[in-house]
């Protein structure tokens, strides 16, 4: 009986994918101990899935990121089908953009003219993978190409022969051949082996000159365990297994692309194709970042550098025009943020006892966020009844500023303290008053009266000098300092005069208004004697606002130390 009132939502029009009968499967008892060979297909499969394909500049930017991350195999396009792809491949080769330890890979259909054009694009390459494919699944054979199995095998064999013969025309290049039975996951596994064996028979790979057999889940058709069975069966029955690199190319139609790829490695695969953050056709390709970080979190070297998480996100977004979900595994903006008070408390307690040389063991944090250039940041909980929820949002509405998270955290503490003593709702106006009292005090020991800066090629490698006047309540003090910037020069001056070492940890400026009367808000977090203090200041001059904020932070530190004493 259907649970839907919509007659079109009818599960009976679909049939389950047939599972292999493998009572002696071995892969469930195995575990991953090493990273696979990686191949990025961002510049091919990822690019062809974009509404607006990458420009030349974007392709170059993505290429640079992939090389920096440590990819050794990079599929760079379909040069026979696209002039921009052809031109990009030529740029890589003629401009000597390919490191010696990086191999480019290109895709082509098993058609003579396309294969010939592919080799033209690759002329002069030191080493390259020529990746040829044809469709093998029943629906493709019967409804798209109207061919029987013999006809599909003939296409694959002819394509393999053409790839091999064209390679002989370019002896200066070290050629690697790759074949994909497109829609492998939807193809009878016995027939997939038959087609691949026909290609292998043409190419005659050896242990020293391996062929790549790529087995794609072009459409993810079944559960990951079923795909793993297909891979294990294939590896057990294909010819010349020791002369092959078994590659996997999964898509995310069922949301299991990463899981399918991981289980495929257990089942005998050697190599994984995918994209950064999962871009690709339909629901996307297998996300290499997620899989690599899965390995990393288990103490396995992923052999890719994911440490510059923000750089990866920024580059992928700039090249694909696709925003990264804030809860994307491992790299999302909110992944290491806890909104729950109990979670925040558990994390705080674990971090307090976590030793630097011990295995990572912190509640709710599977890895150390600092490994990815992140920090654990608690966020103000939105709780209308508590009196403190939404404080940052209300402050933004009142003053037009967006607090950085490190200031949100401290503001929340002040609001909570007020909420515990006051009855009823805390108004937006009160929140503004709390903010100004906490971060913009006007009763401190020091006040900035004036300043002058000088910059240029100065001695000792320093580039900035500052002379400032501070009022300490009774007299005017002239302070001098130097540094690599005006801020560091000013903190140097404060240290020389007051004896207090003020280290600027976080800094942010925001415009409050526009036009001739424009105002700016500077917000700082400083470290004084191992403790952090936040402060803010407002001025028409951004540098003046910044220096005033630092003075306020110093005043706050001095006041709190006096009270503690």
TrEMBL record:
<dbReference type="InterPro" id="IPR002034">
    <property type="entry name" value="AIPM/Hcit_synth_CS"/>
</dbReference>
<dbReference type="GO" id="GO:0046872">
    <property type="term" value="F:metal ion binding"/>
</dbReference>
<dbReference type="Pfam" id="PF22615">
    <property type="entry name" value="IPMS_D2"/>
</dbReference>
<dbReference type="InterPro" id="IPR013785">
    <property type="entry name" value="Aldolase_TIM"/>
</dbReference>
<dbReference type="InterPro" id="IPR013709">
    <property type="entry name" value="2-isopropylmalate_synth_dimer"/>
</dbReference>
<keyword id="KW-0012">Acyltransferase</keyword>
<keyword id="KW-0028">Amino-acid biosynthesis</keyword>
<dbReference type="InterPro" id="IPR005668">
    <property type="entry name" value="IPM_Synthase"/>
</dbReference>
<protein>
    <recommendedName>
        <fullName>2-isopropylmalate synthase</fullName>
        <ecNumber>2.3.3.13</ecNumber>
    </recommendedName>
</protein>
<comment type="similarity">
    <text>Belongs to the alpha-IPM synthase/homocitrate synthase family. LeuA type 2 subfamily.</text>
</comment>
<keyword id="KW-0808">Transferase</keyword>
<keyword id="KW-0432">Leucine biosynthesis</keyword>
<feature type="domain" description="Pyruvate carboxyltransferase">
    <location>
        <begin position="36"/>
        <end position="310"/>
    </location>
</feature>
<dbReference type="Pfam" id="PF00682">
    <property type="entry name" value="HMGL-like"/>
</dbReference>
<dbReference type="GO" id="GO:0003852">
    <property type="term" value="F:2-isopropylmalate synthase activity"/>
</dbReference>
<dbReference type="InterPro" id="IPR039371">
    <property type="entry name" value="LeuA_N_DRE-TIM"/>
</dbReference>
<dbReference type="InterPro" id="IPR000891">
    <property type="entry name" value="PYR_CT"/>
</dbReference>
<keyword id="KW-0479">Metal-binding</keyword>
<keyword id="KW-0100">Branched-chain amino acid biosynthesis</keyword>
<dbReference type="InterPro" id="IPR054692">
    <property type="entry name" value="LeuA-like_post-cat"/>
</dbReference>
<comment type="pathway">
    <text>Amino-acid biosynthesis; L-leucine biosynthesis; L-leucine from 3-methyl-2-oxobutanoate: step 1/4.</text>
</comment>
<dbReference type="InterPro" id="IPR036230">
    <property type="entry name" value="LeuA_allosteric_dom_sf"/>
</dbReference>
<dbReference type="GO" id="GO:0009098">
    <property type="term" value="P:L-leucine biosynthetic process"/>
</dbReference>
<dbReference type="Pfam" id="PF08502">
    <property type="entry name" value="LeuA_dimer"/>
</dbReference>
């Amino acid at each position: 009986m259907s649970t839907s009132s919509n007659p079109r939502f009818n599960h009976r029009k679909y049939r389950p994918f047939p599972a292999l009968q493998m009572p002696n499967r071995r892969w469930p008892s195995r575990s991953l101990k090493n990273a696979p060979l990686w191949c990025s297909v961002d510049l091919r499969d990822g690019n062809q899935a974009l509404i607006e394909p990458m420009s030349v500049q974007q392709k170059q930017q993505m290429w640079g990121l992939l090389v920096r991350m440590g990819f050794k195999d990079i599929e760079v396009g379909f040069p026979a089908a696209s002039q921009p792809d052809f031109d990009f491949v030529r740029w890589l080769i003629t401009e000597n953009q390919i490191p010696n330890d990086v191999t480019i890979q290109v895709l082509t259909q098993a058609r003579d003219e396309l294969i010939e054009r592919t080799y033209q694009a690759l002329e002069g390459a030191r080493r390259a993978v020529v990746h040829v494919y044809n469709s093998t699944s029943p629906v493709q054979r019967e409804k798209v190409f109207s061919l029987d199995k013999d006809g599909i095998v003939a296409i694959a064999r002819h394509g393999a022969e053409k790839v091999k013969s064209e390679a002989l025309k370019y002896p200066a290049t070290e050629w690697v051949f790759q074949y994909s039975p497109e829609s492998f996951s939807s193809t009878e596994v016995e027939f997939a082996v038959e087609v691949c064996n026909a290609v292998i028979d043409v190419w005659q790979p050896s242990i020293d000159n391996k062929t790549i057999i790529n087995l794609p889940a072009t459409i993810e058709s079944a559960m990951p365990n079923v795909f793993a069975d297909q891979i294990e069966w294939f590896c057990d029955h294909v010819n010349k297994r020791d002369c092959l690199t078994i590659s996997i190319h999964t898509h995310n139609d069922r949301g299991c692309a990463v899981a399918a790829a991981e289980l495929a490695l257990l089942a005998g695969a050697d190599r994984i194709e995918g994209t950064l953050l999962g871009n690709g056709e339909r629901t996307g390709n297998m996300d290499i970042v997620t899989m690599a970080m899965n390995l990393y979190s288990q103490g396995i070297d992923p052999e890719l550098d994911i440490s510059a998480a923000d750089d990866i996100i920024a580059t992928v977004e700039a090249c694909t025009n696709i925003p990264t979900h804030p809860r994307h595994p491992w790299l999302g903006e909110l992944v290491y943020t806890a909104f729950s008070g109990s979670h925040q408390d558990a994390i705080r307690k674990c971090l307090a006892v976590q030793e630097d040389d011990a295995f990572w063991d912190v509640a709710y944090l599977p890895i150390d966020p600092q490994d990815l250039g992140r920090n654990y940041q608690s966020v103000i909980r939105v709780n209308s009844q508590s009196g403190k929820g939404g404080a940052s949002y209300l402050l933004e509405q009142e003053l037009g500023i967006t607090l950085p998270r490190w200031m949100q955290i401290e503001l929340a503490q002040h609001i909570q303290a007020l909420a515990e003593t006051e009855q009823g709702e805390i108004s937006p106006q009160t929140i503004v008053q709390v903010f100004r009292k906490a971060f913009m005090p006007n009763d401190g020991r020091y006040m900035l009266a004036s300043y002058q800066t000088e910059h240029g090629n100065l001695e000792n490698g320093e580039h900035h000098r500052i002379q400032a006047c501070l009022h300490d309540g009774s007299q005017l003090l002239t302070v001098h300092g130097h540094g690599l910037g005006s801020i560091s020069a000013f903190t140097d001056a404060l240290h020389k005069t007051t004896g207090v070492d003020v280290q600027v940890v976080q800094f942010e400026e925001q415009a409050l208004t526009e036009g001739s009367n424009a105002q700016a808000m500077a917000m700082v977090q400083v470290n004084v004697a191992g403790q952090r203090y936040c402060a803010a200041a407002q001025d028409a001059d951004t540098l003046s606002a910044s220096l005033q904020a630092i003075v306020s932070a110093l005043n706050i530190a001095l006041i709190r130390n006096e009270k503690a004493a």
